């Protein structure tokens, strides 16, 4: 019997402008959302954050950003 794992993908609009800020936030998020793939597209006009994983709490993500002075909004 095969077990399938359904990954969730969440995409957020952010105001992160630089690689240092993006790297810091990715590091924090990876500690809290284990077994996930997290990346930024800072060249996109919406400074996209993409998270692929299981049990992604959008409130946790937006809270981390707010705590560090950044804006983050789930794109639907």
Automatic annotation (TrEMBL):
<protein>
    <submittedName>
        <fullName>Uncharacterized protein</fullName>
    </submittedName>
</protein>
């Amino acid at each position: 019997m095969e077990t399938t794992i359904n990954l969730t993908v969440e995409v957020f609009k952010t105001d992160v402008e630089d690689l240092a800020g993006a790297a810091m936030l990715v590091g924090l998020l990876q500690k809290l959302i284990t077994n996930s793939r997290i990346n930024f597209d800072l060249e996109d006009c919406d400074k996209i954050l993409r998270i692929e994983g299981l049990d992604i709490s959008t409130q946790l993500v937006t809270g981390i950003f707010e705590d560090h002075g950044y804006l983050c909004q789930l794109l639907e």
